[in-house]
Amino acid sequence: MREIVLINITGKDKSGLTAQLTETLAGYNVTILDIGQAVIHEFLSLGILIEIPDEHRSASILKDLLFAAHKLGITAQFTPIEENRYEEWVAQQGKERRIITMLGRKINAAQICRLAQSIADNGLNIEVITRLSGRVSLLNPETSPKACIQMSVSGRLADPDGFRARLLSISEQTGVDISFHVDNLYSQNRRLVVFDMDSTLVQAEVINLLAERAGAGAEVARITEEAMNGKLDFKESLTRRVAHLKGLPETVLAEVAEGLRLTDGAERVVATLKGLGYKLGIISGGFDYFGRYFQQKLGLDYVFANQLEVADGSLSGRLKGDIIDGPKKAEILKTIAMVENISLEQTIAVGDGANDLPMLHTAGLGVAFHAKPIVRANADRSISSVGLDGLLYLMGISEREIRQA
Q1: Is 177 marked active-site?
Q2: 327 partner at 20 to 30 Å CA-CA among 5, 37, 90, 389?
């Protein structure tokens, strides 16, 4: 009968600790079946699962290990594992895994409790918890204005829609963003990120600003709101709104563009992703003049948006070419992926309005950003509590990696 022992080491971390412990084990030629370590506030938790060779007895090995631990000022505990239990554990390999991300300005115990209970109630098990955000200074909390933890959970999820609805409810009640997705090869190999422009990459609905200059601000803003909430056909609503811009001098476009502000975190997320080698683009139901303006400002690779028709130096109140609506956004995303020779699973799309939903559902990772209720309810991932750079955490990028990019 094989001897299998789980060793749990706890105590103050120090350099060389793992080397000295495994040196003791090496003297008995043990096999390491599994190993994992975490350090929180210089306090170590190390687990080593070992198989003891037939020529040795566990008592001698564990005695020497206890002595080594004592010299290091740490605690060692041992748990014998039955061979059949070990084989059952091995057989669980390949079970479906999901990554659950909790993101907010701060994270408290009540929020984690609600999430952990939901995970357990759905028959899932938390296997790994990782902090992605930077360490928080109590004296200068503004230096780390975000908190993010990532959980790797295993198990078969019988009701994904019900689970998503429950996470959305927790998010709305506690003010923290919670997102989940299946952990697979593609989740670690994204290559393309596309953004909606208005109210996503920039802090405004540009057509509303243009309408204000044309004296039709209130009416156009009303139509925009209904369209973004999915209450109006996008093509029809855009045609109606653009008609209100007839006669507006073309020079107004530059004036409005210069006054636009990027969304909080936009420059950080773009700079980080460019540094990591991602292709970036805008796919917008807004206007290409502004898309090209931000393409140049941010160094983006692609921009697709609607074209305003200009006649004799003024807007004609019409559009040129095909209108980019929801289905067209999804088609464009597919085309870019084909050009870049990548799978759709390697793409990420971010948007806020109902016309973004086809694109969000087409992408490997679709993220609703400060979105309308209909969009949040139909998206697996959302960001509502922090800026656009929260996307980096949803992608599994840690604060350390962000700073190095």
Answers
A1: no
A2: 389
Q: In which domain, by residue range, is 346 found?
A: 192-404
Catalytic residue among 64, 159, 198, 301: 198
What predicted TM-score, i.e. pTM, was given to this entire model? 0.85
Identify the H or E element spanning 368. Answer: strand 365-369
Q: Report the amino acid identity of residue 351.
A: G
pLDDT tens profile 1-14: 688 999 999 999 99
User: What confidence score (pLDDT) does residue 1 get?
Assistant: 65
Say if strands 381-383 and 279-287 run parallel, antiparallel, or are unpaired: unpaired
Boundary residue ending a domain (71, 91, 111): 91
Express each pLDDT in 92-126 by its tens digit.
776 788 999 999 999 999 999 999 999 999 999 99
Tokens representing 252 are 């107004």
Task: Please tell me the predicted confidence (pLDDT) of residue 144.
Answer: 67
Examine the domain organization and report whether 384 and 235 are in the same domain.
Answer: yes
CA angle 236, 238, 241 (to 5 degrees): 110
Task: Quote the tokens at residue 247.
Answer: 């006669």
Burial per residue of 107-146, b for 16 or more beta-carbon CB atoms within 10 angstroms, e otherwise: beeebbebbbebbeebebeeeeeebbbbeeeeeeeeeeeb
What is the distance between the alpha carbons of residues 191 and 211, in angstroms, rounded to a whole number?
A: 37
Residue 14, phi-psi category: left (phi > 0), alpha (psi -120 to 50), beta (remainder): beta
Q: Give me the count of residues in the chain.
A: 405
Q: With contact defined as beta carbons under 8 Å apart, do 4 and 50 qualify?
A: yes
Q: Which helix (H) or strand (E) holds 175?
A: none
Which of 196, 288, 325, 380 is catalytic? The answer is 196
How many domains is the chain built from? 3
In this structure, what token pair is assigned to residue 62?
């564990």
* Annotation marks residue 34 as catalytic: no
- CA Rg value for the chain: 27
